[in-house]
Design goal:
Shape: globular
Number of strands: 2
Radius of gyration: 15 Å
Strand content: under 5%
Strand order of the largest sheet: 1-2
Number of helices: 7
Order of helices and strands: EEHHHHHHH
Helix content: 40-55%
InterPro entries: DUF5069 (IPR031849)
Distance between the termini: 11 Å
Pfam family, one: DUF5069
Low-confidence stretches: none
Oligomer: single chain
Mean pLDDT: 93
Largest sheet: 2 strands, antiparallel
């Protein structure tokens, strides 16, 4: 378990899961507070950061640059949407959220998550299936 410098992926910003967590990780990385084990996956195109940026139509590096300029999470999300021309509607937020909350369940990222569980000695934990469940468990938000 680690003491996370970021919030749960379940916390919504502008109606979207994971966006606030992604910003927290960018901010923590900028000041050297992001745990070492998070660095290989930060902004990874196949991870939640990369998938969310792709969904919004913006490059992760552009989001990082915008975060460095400051502003609230909501202002940064509005900037992302404006820059990419993405119209964030309730329906689109729902589509993203349903996708994001199920990552790891019966899909390709599930292989990576099973490896993480095995490395953590959690291979027998059938209740930890999705990325959200594993993240929240590893960061001490659930038992």
């Amino acid at each position: 378990m680690i003491d996370p410098p970021q919030r749960s992926p379940r916390v919504k910003v502008g109606g979207l899961f994971h966006f606030g967590r992604m910003l927290d990780k960018i901010r923590a990385h900028k000041c050297g507070a992001l745990p070492e084990e998070y660095l290989p996956n930060l902004g990874l195109s196949l991870g939640l950061d990369g998938r969310l940026c792709s969904f919004l139509g913006i490059a992760f590096t552009d989001v990082c640059s915008r975060v460095e300029q400051g502003g609230t999470d909501e202002e940064i999300l509005a900037w992302c949407c404006e820059r990419s021309g993405f119209q964030l509607t309730e329906e689109r937020a729902h589509i993203w959220n349903e996708y994001a909350r199920k990552v790891g369940w019966n899909d390709l990222p599930g292989r990576f998550l099973r490896r993480v569980k095995a490395e953590d000695g959690l291979a027998d934990r059938d209740d930890l299936v999705t990325a959200f469940e594993i993240i929240d468990f590893r960061e001490g938000r659930v038992k």
